[in-house]
């Protein structure tokens, strides 16, 4: 059997160390389970800061920023220090911010200067003594050295005498610096020093102190520091022939285990001082130190400046363009002044002019009101109230205005609201945008050097990242860079949901009051025109799924322009590709964009996920995840100009073409039947068709807006090399952060993108390019040779498509993926017409896609030979197609039903394609329910367009039943594993930590006035999420908990928001139903990351869309080997056994209430009653009872599609409650709930004792994948 690459069978292409790495015991991140809201638990408080505390910390930052209200911040800070001592939220950078504020106040208030300086020295002394578990940093010592230089009693400038706190001179400070193993070079280069003169003075003071103390090494280090500050950076320093002569060739960096730099040294003598030498420059010193400490190049100023310009000037560029548009209209005499113009930019300019003035006035009024309220409540003992003005003053009114307008534009059509948005989402989004911009401004202000990602991952020897030494080296480099950049950055705090909503409400209220448009209508009878000024945005209520929902709607005139006008100016840089390689991921919240804060994981307001990720990052367990994200983000892309030109021509025509929606919906409105009032059936049919027509019209408008974003972004980046920073969802699946134009998007997005690097095709590359074209056209289930032959037969069509894409026969438009097909036609045509096709340099990404990848992982996990054959794990001459197999089975059933004169079967005859059943087959092993399958199939039938709208529901119900029945025992091995995963998750969700179990019976019960029914305490203690660790060390935490809502009164409406810092009991049903798909997704994410790392080590360009891996055509054979070898390495490590062992260790001391195991759960576990000490009566109660989570059938079962990103599930909680369908029970009588509770109360069993054994593994050997041509193809 030939190998996928067409050559003889070869040994594994990956390094042997990867096998060892994957077979090791993964280090687990284990944290305490969150405690119920009514429990005060020290570990819980430390890990999960409550919202009121988070609010107070945010108020502190807002009051310190710009010295808005330092006394108030100090008061809150002192209270937190006394009540939450040792809490990680009170970090060193917060203490440094207070010292800095005290010194600034001392500079401002001459009369009160001794008191402010006394506060600064007192706080420093508290840090130095270590009572509060906060250690001084280089920034701390820089600030105190600055304080001494400015105000010491012997100072010639402003001597101040302090008696209330111990003051430290440079000798004392240096002694403490050395004692804490901090490099003096980092102190004198700290951001606290803002001038060259101050930094020079600090170097002299510490050098003198070191000389007095006899510390020659420190004197040398400070001399080296001063020398580096006088070096002119040579633009040709990377060229081997031009090495700066004066610079020491070797500077040694001594580091602590936690990443701190403790010393800089060089063995080479420093040159003597000469006349006319370059003066000391603080910025030059910082740049050289960055390169030395980070052990890699940093972005050059000009390159970084371009990305900085993109990230920092988006608002100023937007306002300039809006202003320019308005001025041009005015010069041409066109009616843009006032709101007569229909141009979106002109409207936005007018709104901005009014809004910034309104915000400025309202903030001034707010400050006065808050001062009055503060005087009235000065004697109140209530907790600190959140005031808005400090948060609104963090940014200028102009920037607040632009943020509000642009966020409103970006939210258009979100959350399933036609031409509008949900109110709660709008409030949170605007608040988040203000917070993000404030943090970005702080980051830009600090001007920290950005490290450049490594070009190639280390490959062999001790530096291989899968060896112990290589992994440690990777960790040491990252931690050093992270520590260096964290110390260089100013402290900021995260805002709570409450603050975001209040800030968002204030700004939305302002824009809704001032933003207007003028609309003109003509009387059809008289021809008279009427003009009316209307609000651009309005608030109303809609009903969605039976629930009342507050929404903000766009004026129809604004909504219409959103689908027509250029809208790239309304995009924030966090929505755009980057112009430089993304910042390497240095920690869980530091990487990607240079200045806009990004997180390595997309946790949807789940504090538990964030805490786990942070601890795993700090423990050095995420090095390969961060390295994988760096690989994905550093792939260079370009816009495919030839495809873009065709797209633009189609877009401007306004016609429906190749998945681009028309400017004006072209579907005719249903005709109202004449007998509608007398024929009830005709009325129902008409109303259903009318509803469907309205939905299609709204979808057309939404799609048009989406395409508009893609076209405008592509236009903006024509000719540029762009990069797509990546992060992962909570399951570890990687996604580009820019949402609008990326390779993970639709066919149009993918067709517009091409690799920046071009590589010669070669013989194999030319063959793979042809196979790729056949795949895109939909001819992907034949053998490789047949696909190549298919392309040869259609060469005339391919040439015609490339030469005359719109004027010719348009063969490419009939492809499954037309725009990618067109791009491939153009590349193949250019190659075949070149003098040497094999030498043609091609940058088109060629794909290798898994065959129902979830089922591939299940088959490998279970050794399921039958399942493996269906999904191409086993070698075969032709690719297997499980979707066509099931579709054919359903067609046979339809033929049988037609003989029985079934009308639905007659309607569906010949219309059940593989596409109709694909999603349902794919998600069957993920636990898709009948209702879920029906909805999936209904969507596919509607897309076909050849089934009447009113019949789609009935037809989908019929098909769902037959598809699920046809699958039968086809995937029995996968079903067994799925049931095992489901049962494990159900048990874990019912478990309680032993220490909480003991405390819950001893703690007094708090009375609850609202609760009519007294629940057992153990039910409130069921807070345990399913947590597991991927083979790469990433902790996965399932976020499904009971939704806790907080009511917030705003000027627009009362909204209910979820509070991520308020823990609640887990949703056991969702934890169980979601675990199988989430676990499989975490495996396919691991496989992708391993492949990405290995491809980079081999020098291959790599990109991925979950289970679709992309590289150059000439590199496909190499990547195919790597894909197979990494899959084999992953599944040779006995993944399920590793998961089972982790559960036994992670939940070793967890107990399950016996009463929660009644019903099917007890039967499935096959527990022996005598082992549990149960009587026959107890056993009967458990087997005949019905567990709580079995009493309902949730129609919204979490069966996830392979490509579904569930991150968009709303945090706002205006969602329909799941329907509860009580199971029908037989006539037998069982005891009441109260009787069962009373009999079994207080009886618990160990979770690890009832974990079900692993399913029996089949005979399929995963190494056989090496011989399968069509595993990924």
Automatic annotation (TrEMBL):
Q: Which domain of life is it from?
A: Eukaryota
Report the subcellular localization: Mitochondrion
Q: Does the keyword Nucleotidyltransferase apply?
A: yes
Q: Which UniProt keywords apply?
A: DNA-directed RNA polymerase, Mitochondrion, Nucleotidyltransferase, Transcription, Transferase, Transit peptide
Q: What EC number(s) does the entry state?
A: 2.7.7.6
Biological process terms in GO annotation: mitochondrial transcription
- Which GO terms label this protein's molecular function in UniProt? DNA-directed RNA polymerase activity; mitochondrial promoter sequence-specific DNA binding
The record ties this protein, via Gene3D superfamilies, to: 1.10.287.260, 1.10.287.280, 5' to 3' exonuclease, C-terminal subdomain, DNA-directed RNA polymerase, N-terminal domain
- A GO CC term assigned to this protein in UniProt: mitochondrial DNA-directed RNA polymerase complex
Looking up InterPro entries in the UniProt record yields:
DNA-dir_RNA_pol_helix_hairp_sf, DNA-dir_Rpol_C_phage-type, DNA-dir_Rpol_phage-type, DNA/RNA_pol_sf, RNA_POL_N_sf, RPOL_N
Catalysed transformations (reactions): RNA(n) + a ribonucleoside 5'-triphosphate = RNA(n+1) + diphosphate
Q: Which family does it belong to?
A: Belongs to the phage and mitochondrial RNA polymerase family.
Q: Which PANTHER family match?
A: DNA-DIRECTED RNA POLYMERASE, MITOCHONDRIAL
User: What is the purpose of this protein?
Assistant: DNA-dependent RNA polymerase catalyzes the transcription of DNA into RNA using the four ribonucleoside triphosphates as substrates.
Protein name listed in UniProt: DNA-directed RNA polymerase
